[in-house]
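The freezer alarm interrupted the setup, so I double-checked each line after restarting. Inputs confirmed:
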Amino acid sequence: MNELYRKPASELAQMLRNGEVSSVELTKLFLDRSEKLNPLTNSYLVINRESALEQAANADQMIAAGNTPSALTGVPIAVKDNLTTTDAITTAGSKILENYLPQYDSTVVSKLRAAGMPILGKTNLDEFAMGSSTEFSAFGPSKNPWDLERIPGGSGGGSSSAVSGFLAPIAVGSDTGGSIRFPAAVTGSVGAKPTYGAVSRYGLIALASSLDQVGPVTNDVNDAALLQDIIAGHDPMDSTSLPESLGQMAEFAKNNDVKGLRVGVIKQLASDGFHPGVKARFDESIQLLTDAGAQIVEVDCPSFEYAVSAYYLILPAEASSNLARFDSVRFGKRVLPEGNPTIERVMAATREAGFGPEVKRRIILGTYALSSGYYDAYYGSAQKVRTLIQQDFEKAFAAADVLISPTAPTTAFKFGEKLDDPLAMYLNDIATIPANLAGIPGISVPNGLAENDLPSGLQILAPAMKDGLMYSAAAGIEKLHTDKWGKRMIDFAPELGVN
Amino acid sequence: MSEITPENVRHLASLARILVTEEEVEKLAKELDVIVESVAQVKSAVSEDTVATSHPIPMANVYREDEVKPSLSQSQALSNAPDQADGKFKVNAILDEE
Amino acid sequence: MAKAELMDFDKAIEKFEVVIGLEVHVELNTKTKMFCGCANVFGNEPNTNVCPVCLGLPGALPVVNGKAVESSIAIGLALNCSIAKDGRFARKNYFYPDLSKNFQTSQYDEPIAYEGELDVPVASGKVFTVGIERAHMEEDAGKLTHVGGAGRIQGAEYSLVDFNRAGVPLVEIVTKPIFGAEAEAPELASAYVRQIREIVRAMDVSDARMERGNVRCDANVSLRPRGQEKLGTRTETKNVNSLRSVENAVRYEIQRQAAILESGGTITQETRHWHEDKKYTSAGRPKSDADDYRYFPEPDLVPVQPTDDEIEKIRALLPENPASRRARLQSDWGMSDNEFRDIVNSDLLDEVDATVSLGASPQASKKWWTGEIARIANVEGKEFTELAVTPSDVAELEKMIESGKLNDRLAREALAGVIAGEGSVSEVMNSRGLEVVSDDGALTAAVDKALAEQPDVLEKIKAGKEQAAGAIIGAVMKEMRGQADAARVRELILERAKA
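Predicted 3D structure, all chains:
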């Protein structure tokens, strides 16, 4: 398994600095792989060959001049298609934006460009990031490299399938209720959601403003840490952006010794509803941790019982407002009904044609939750549940340094399995949602094969602003696993396109 | 007793400016009713005294200086406009003709 | 559109008790918009002061203009309000083509200022204490023009949107219901708005030009039969673009509503539109679902928490309140109540004050502004602010008169020239050749000529009837084309006649 494309991004970066390979060569390698394999996985909505090679050439010049603005200069990256890019159509997975070319780069993309990381293309997602399987993308679902008849998770299934299939060495995604972490879990890769506000949301097409966060999608904890270091930081264009840096994640990740680490197991997320295989792998990891000197404690978070309900009130409410701007006036699709329609009718017809069923469902639900007479019972109550969840986390973090749970109740399910039952689909995120509600950081690392020989994930949560602690614990668990397995879990995945 | 009736759905769809067929109205009413029933439990989880959280990480007083920054050019602003005239966005009439 | 039936005003007041409420929107004169760095300027090419934020492009985020917050606090303090120590912005959700996000970022139940009052004097000398419910911050919408259908919304073929104004900071000031104004209600409404204008101009937080929309007023009027406890149904009249219109619109609504109630009808709760040309209100669109704005706290912005220190700093910089300023000026200028009231009622206090500061006498300043300039404004159907004459022009005019270079008649001509845009006072004097001739030689020649032509008048003067000189003065002035000092002419006539 010495192929170049399987190497961690950090190793590729080193090779670039050593002159063993050029950015143009590397970028070309991934572009070729992407073009060849994308018909299988549908990871990308657009592969930006020309632009990526141009950026790679620039990166090579920088490196040659001895100027490497970041730890990953020259390493190509894939970007989830809800982050605006001026050189690529940005659709957010929706027909309503199918021809939309943004007039500005999102802050995260600007940072990637400044870091000298060529952007390979834009990856697929559930429409407006609403979903956990990528089946709600208006452009077809992405497929899981482990089993192409199964979902790669969502909403960021494009990025997760790209990275786990080695169509890109590293990617950036967004996480509102688990959209980075759940795909990571079901594809055997690594996905992190930083503390709310650590990474700028300027240019991230908003879903739920108080829950959204941008984060890394990778095959290694160290890569995730390096990428977070590049994309994080205060942004004056985002009022919710944290004023101070949280430190260097890559430095924290170097400390992978779990001895003495107090690890809290969340009672509500280690029980029924979780598949036996998933649970078994989780228990095995607990044992590994114990054997390595970590202290395991059980923590009780009773308010988590209401987390999914609160989330499916807050998200639709904020989304219904955020998506109101898609009205055919200034950009995006415009549908003109017959006759001499009024602008109201044009707006309604455009949104009918441009939005998919899940988006419509959530907009209507959100409108309901905010409407007069219902606000207190629904949106108002949900925002109070958030307070309870924060309080439960506070108590838990008094007893433990980090908290763990299985990232998701199941492994990857087949396409169509949960489409008819929205509630069942929502439950994929039962373990990941609390972190978004509370604003704390969370990461999913591979946790062994479970049902159907498919990957399961282990989620690590840390207190708000303590992303470093999260990376350190994650690096520790990753090491315990790779020591046990002899290699990374992703290296157990079937080789794509070889059949 | 359903919480969300087809009439509700029609009204909400109109508020949200989304055209819905009668078939969709029926379907949505059923689906949303199930969802609302399930999420309604949040009411019982909280009391009058519980404070709401609207921002996960407490911050306040984030301001910018009152200094002019470059704007988009007119052509940039209109670059994605489905229809335009005289440098402005063009839209269908606002009221039904009487 | 048939005009409504009106009851005689005095009769209406006799039968019904009037309750009015005023909502005034003040456009701040900050350099930039409320939530982005676009310039806050009037009159540029359409859609040239816009950016992703105020255009509502996907991914854009607002950041609060600190100066706008300061100005809003200043307005609140000037209105004797309490300032909120912890308040949030809220989203007011509704769809309209001039609203780039299809929600307005405003304040709902947490206004920056609340519970204040303002003393408003009216012509009779009575002073009303108007209760202020709240003053809150919000942003303006873009500007719609309707094409076809005579420029109005009804019957338009299509509409055009310019977003230059979208995002401009506004402060909305809402009064408590005003009781007991009786027959003075219309005048009180106008006086209140004038007072607000004076305040915000004195603080230099707004240009306060109603004809430019810097200050906008919506007038609420309701009537109840005398003795009835329950308040009547109110109407809200918009498009009231001048102080005169405020007074006229309130008066009209009182008369219209009284006629309806008297005939046994009921008042429809609705928004009405004021027509200044024909002086009537017409029914606007009935409000239906537009009333459910689904307010919720703005998740993209963080709370505004001014400290006591900051508030006191702003309070210390407040200019003198209008009532004390007026008292001081009236006393300094030695004017009677009537004389002073003339100036205030004509809205010319600032102009007269500025003119006096530049050296002209108070009486002369008053004479020019409330006399000739107001007359010209009236004739041309303009607001005096639209005329091209400034306090320094008037001060210069007076200097010329005092130094004998101009007499009153010539000064009026010079003023006309300045207003016609021909330049400054001295430039007009030069180009038009307007100057009192002080050369005695020329004058004497003219006097001699006139005396020779009217020998009978000469005889009368010689006989001691000095009043007869008047006829000669007239002739000389005609000869000199008015450019002579009448007093000197008279002196010369008497001299020469008796010689």
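Quick read of the result. The longest helix of chain C spans residues 243-262.
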